[in-house]
Design brief:
The protein has about 300 residues and is mostly beta strands. The chain has 2 domains: about 45-165, Methylamine Dehydrogenase, Chain H (7 Propeller); about 175-300. Helix content is about 10%, strand content about 45%. A 4-stranded antiparallel β-sheet has the order 1-2-3-4, with no helix packed on it. A 4-stranded antiparallel β-sheet has the order 5-6-7-8, with no helix packed on it. Strands 9-10-11-12 form a 4-stranded antiparallel β-sheet, with no helix packed on it. A hairpin with a 4-residue loop joins strand 10 (about 130-135) and strand 11. The relative contact order is 0.11. Residues about 15-30 have low confidence and may be disordered.
């Protein structure tokens, strides 16, 4: 009997130790969780742009907020179901689901741009001399307010099939995918699973890349790559060269977006914005934001 009691005690202790090991990571995850805000941006995040000190987000509806504001989004008047938004120095542009192109200035309302059958709309994300572009089935044009586009752009092989652009110094680079981003030192793209910096292929591999942005942190920059399983952070040296993978920002990143597919990724000011898709539940499928002064991820 005494031996049986001893065995039972040993088994009970072993079970408790095993359970404690299993429970500890769960408690750690719970401890890192942040209560979710109520989503303001509804639906898929298709595109974002900065215009006249404000951010605009295309998500069926069109949303705006001050660029340095934490959350603060509000829906604004728009001419239809908006699937793209872009801007240049003087004009904001939107593309609707039924492929109509509209523009407005800071002081005027929406006007349709006619004489063209648009397919894609994007801008080159430049800080100065910003330019917006539209593609048709045949050509790539730069935009100039309400005028029918007639300035054809043929800068590289991406040309009429372009889906995105990035600016560095006085040059604009085009891409047939959204995997393109520019930093202070140059432009980043992908070749297969490898990062390309100014035509030099890096040894760093990132699988399942879906989106890309450069985040400026004080005097340094980080390359962010949205993948099928969260965001990969890549450290850059003073010359902009990718050096190694780093730790992604956000104390709650593991319990929020770490395993989600990041279809859209942007960085403006001190903030990062990501549209994440949770294939197991719709609870986490949202536009998420990270702010330097609020160092965690939450729903936008």
């Amino acid at each position: 009997m005494k031996n049986k009691n001893t065995i039972r005690a040993i088994l009970s202790l072993s079970f408790l130790l095993f359970a404690a090991c299993k429970i500890e990571p769960i408690f750690y995850a719970i401890e890192k969780e942040v209560p979710l805000e109520k989503a303001i941006i509804k639906g898929n995040l298709y595109a974002m742009t900065e215009f006249k000190g404000k951010l605009y987000a295309a998500s069926g509806s069109l949303y705006e907020k001050n660029i340095n504001e934490e959350r603060g989004w509000k829906a604004v008047s728009a001419p239809g179901f908006i699937i793209r938004v872009a801007s240049d120095e003087s004009n904001l542009y939107v593309l609707t689901e039924d492929k109509k192109l509209y523009t407005k200035t800071k002081t005027t309302g929406w006007s349709q741009i006619t004489g063209i059958s648009p397919i894609e709309l994007f801008d080159n994300k430049a800080s100065t001399n910003k330019t917006a572009y539209v593609t048709t089935s045949e050509k790539l044009y730069s935009l100039a307010g309400t005028s029918t586009p007639n300035t054809e752009v043929t800068t590289n092989s991406a040309s009429k099939s372009s889906k995105a652009a990035a600016s560095h110094e006085t040059d604009t680079f085009f891409s047939n995918t959204v995997l393109i981003a520019s930093g202070t030192k140059g432009v980043y793209t992908m070749e297969g699973n490898k990062i390309v910096f100014d035509d030099t292929v890096s040894d760093i591999e990132v699988s399942g890349a879906k989106s890309m942005a450069v985040y400026k942190l004080d005097s340094s920059e980080k390359l962010l790559i949205g993948t099928t399983s969260g965001i990969v952070l890549v450290n850059l040296d003073n010359d902009g060269e990718p050096t190694a993978k780093g730790t992604m920002f956000g104390g709650n990143v593991e319990s929020s977006i770490a395993m989600l597919e990041i279809k859209t990724l942007y960085s403006f000011g001190d903030a990062i914005y990501a549209f994440a898709v949770d294939k197991t539940t719709s609870k986490k499928t949202n536009t998420w934001g990270y702010y330097k002064d609020r160092p965690n991820w939450n729903v936008e």
